[in-house]
Design goal:
By secondary structure, the chain is of the alpha/beta class. It has eleven helices and twelve strands. An eight-stranded parallel barrel has the order 1-4-5-8-9-10-11-12, surrounded by nine helices. It has a two-stranded antiparallel ribbon with strand order 6-7. The longest helix has 17 residues. The two termini are about 40 Å apart. Bound molecules: ligand PBG. The site of ligand PBG has 12 residues, from helix 6.
Length: about 325
């Protein structure tokens, strides 16, 4: 206080507002809702098949029949959307990512099955070529470089293919330049003016994606790294430029990825643009927490919920998280 009669202890006691559950609830600044949770799921070929992902304890790849049942659970709990990632059989991966354009590929069949059986949940499809390329990169490799403009043409075909299958939200995760504008224009031209785009606008070249690459089967095949297209973890201003461009090009929502190590980026972006802003608590973040939980070093439920709340505090409107189903169950039936 500036004047002489400064208000201080004992008049001010910060702990008054923390003394019991009801007042803590009254003054809490942020809340986590089921509607904040987006659930990423891995899909495989086959019937009644489930395969654990060893580096992501508790996460399984599912065949379409089982996947639909999980999605139904999510829908009943009130999760607004799921995100699909295919583990393409190795013999269908090639240098051109041709399987990405096949209307009957795994992800398109999964989208159609979900839209038929669980019509009330939003379906998000990734736009990037890495589940389909023999070299594991998100783009086309020409003369040892990821060729931007040729890749964007391929991403347009992949996008239209997924939208024709019924996908509601396209989520380009490839980090090619101008892909949002190009995809948006193609959607308009083909009569898909209501398709949403959630752009992975600020996506960093991160080692936290390791377990995901195991899950989609690209870790063994990936040649080199993705640093010529994903962002340098040292940069923050550059993230704002990426987001600004994607908004101008027609993105409806934007995403930051990874999540917890990049909450500063999410907070800056939300403050600067006031757009629907999402963060992806990626596979490596999930793996870190679960490894500690399995060792008895961290409390599963408490750490999971605290980690999710941190995204809300940073200003995120929602979180893509492998914890979505478990967290939704707790939010529906709070124990404490
Ligand atoms: C593919 C893609 C990746 C993730 C989402 N989409 C991996 C990558 O860029 O290598 C990572 C998600 C996670 O780690 O949970 N473009």
């Amino acid at each position: 206080m500036t004047n002489g009669d400064s208000i201080e202890y004992p008049s001010i006691r910060m702990r008054r507002n923390r003394q019991n559950p009801w007042v803590r609830r009254m003054v809490s600044e942020n809340t986590l809702n089921v509607a904040d949770l987006i659930w990423p799921l891995f899909v495989i070929e086959g019937n009644k098949k489930r395969e654990p992902v060893p580096s992501m304890p508790g996460v399984e790849r599912l065949s379409i029949d089982l996947l639909v049942r999980e999605v139904e659970k999510a829908s009943i709990l009130g999760i607004p959307a799921i995100a699909l990632f295919p583990n393409t059989p190795d013999d269908k991966r090639d240098d051109e990512a041709s399987e990405a354009f096949n209307p009957d590929n795994l992800v398109c069949r999964a989208v159609r099955a979900i839209k038929r059986d669980v019509p009330d949940i939003g379906v998000i499809c990734d736009v990037a070529l890495d589940p389909y390329t023999s070299h594991g990169h998100d783009g086309l490799l020409i003369d040892d470089e990821i060729a931007n403009d040729e890749t964007v043409e391929a991403l347009i075909m992949q996008s239209l293919n997924q939208v024709q299958a019924g996908c509601d939200i396209l989520a380009p995760s490839d980090m090619m330049d101008h892909r949002i504008g190009a995809i948006r224009q193609a959607l308009e031209e083909h009569g898909f003016e209501n398709t949403l785009i959630m752009s992975y606008a600020a996506k960093y070249a991160s080692a936290f994606y390791g377990p995901f690459r195991d899950a989609v089967g690209s870790s063994g095949t990936l040649k080199g790294d993705k640093r010529t297209y994903q962002m340098d973890p040292a940069n923050s201003d550059e993230a704002l430029r990426e987001v600004e461009l994607d908004i101008e090009e027609g993105a409806d929502m934007i995403m930051v990825k990874p999540g917890m190590p990049y909450l500063d980026i999410a907070a800056r972006i939300k403050e600067e643009f006031q757009m629907p802003t999402f963060a992806y608590q990626v596979s490596g973040e999930y793996a870190m927490i679960m490894a500690a939980v399995q060792n008895g070093w961290l409390d599963h439920e408490k750490v999971m919920m605290e980690s999710l709340m941190s995204f809300k505090r940073a200003g995120c409107d929602g979180i893509l998280t492998y914890f979505a189903l478990e967290a939704a169950k707790i939010l529906k039936n709070p124990t404490s």
